[in-house]
Specification:
Elements (H helix, E strand, L loop, with lengths): L1 E10 L2 E11 L3 E6 L6 H9 L6 E6 L2 E2 L5 H7 L1 E4 L11 H13 L9 H17 L15 H14 L4 E5 L10 H12 L5 E5 L3 H7 L2 E6 L2 E6 L1 H6 L1 H16 L1
Parallel strand pairs: 3-8, 3-9, 6-7, 7-8
Antiparallel strand pairs: 1-2, 1-4, 4-5, 9-10
Length: 252
């Protein structure tokens, strides 16, 4: 479903992503890891359309979408959650999710809409909030939520869009230990849908071990390892480039 071919991002003389070719298949969660500055988030930005590629291409369902803007890619089925939450802080929690549901259904705000349709949209929003363990906060203003709940809300909004490709950029960043299981449970639920692709940028190796079916490693913008988690984690190039001595001891 999703493929990058020699995808490259240059900023002046710096090559942030260097000719990365990779194919992502349905029913697989791929963790993209690497040290700080490896190009992980830049690679995500190239796929989702936040950055224009300097060279190479992005393909979805056999169609070249490299020149399409992020909004068009979203309508094609690329869903992205960011390191920093992208929410409407002055609206309520349920209104944020309702807007995402309406966006997917292409519903407008007009006086001729059938009330039953709006009621169904609202019911869908509440169901998503319950799955994200935010049902009790439905009427709260987003600005009043702690960081962990905002991250959960962003995942609920992403689920409301029902994309074919889910892209999570460090979904547990800044969350308390109590909040992390809720996010992991949501991602586990998504993994059960065999027709979905899930991409995950994550620094926490315990999260990667729990979720990933496959690991792709970037280092200095280049793809240096790709395969099953156990084999990739044990490879010398990954130990040296990313995991370090402590991780070597941990895995032995």
């Amino acid at each position: 479903m999703l493929e990058t071919r020699n995808l490259t991002a240059r900023f002046g003389g710096h090559v942030a992503v260097d000719s990365v070719s990779c194919t992502f298949s349905s029913g697989t969660l791929t963790a993209i890891v690497g040290p700080n500055g490896a190009g992980k988030t830049t690679y995500f930005n190239l796929i989702s359309g936040q950055l224009r590629a300097s060279a190479g291409s992005v393909w979805l369902d056999g169609k070249d979408i490299t020149r399409e803007p992020a909004s068009t890619r979203t309508h094609r089925g690329l869903g992205r959650a960011f390191q920093l939450t992208q929410l409407f802080p002055n609206l309520s929690v349920v209104e944020n999710v309702r807007l995402a549901v309406q966006s997917r259904r292409k519903e407008g705000l007009n006086l001729w809409s059938v009330w039953a349709d709006h009621r169904n949209t609202l019911e869908c929003a509440h169901a998503l909030l319950e799955s994200a363990r935010l049902g009790a906060r439905a009427d709260a203003a987003v600005s009043s939520l702690p960081h962990g709940d905002q991250r959960k809300l962003e995942v609920a909004m992403l689920m409301a869009l029902e994309p074919r490709v889910y892209m999570f950029d460090e979904p547990t960043a800044g969350m308390s230990l109590d909040d992390v299981p809720a996010i992991l449970n949501l991602i586990h639920t998504l993994k059960k849908r065999a027709n979905k692709i899930i991409l995950l940028v994550e620094h926490k190796m315990d999260v990667v071990r729990e979720l990933a079916d496959r690991i792709v490693v970037l280092h200095n913008g280049r793809l240096v390892a790709d395969g099953e988690p156990a084999a990739v984690i044990a490879s010398p190039i990954v130990q040296q480039a990313y995991l370090g001595t402590a991780a070597v001891e941990e895995t032995t």
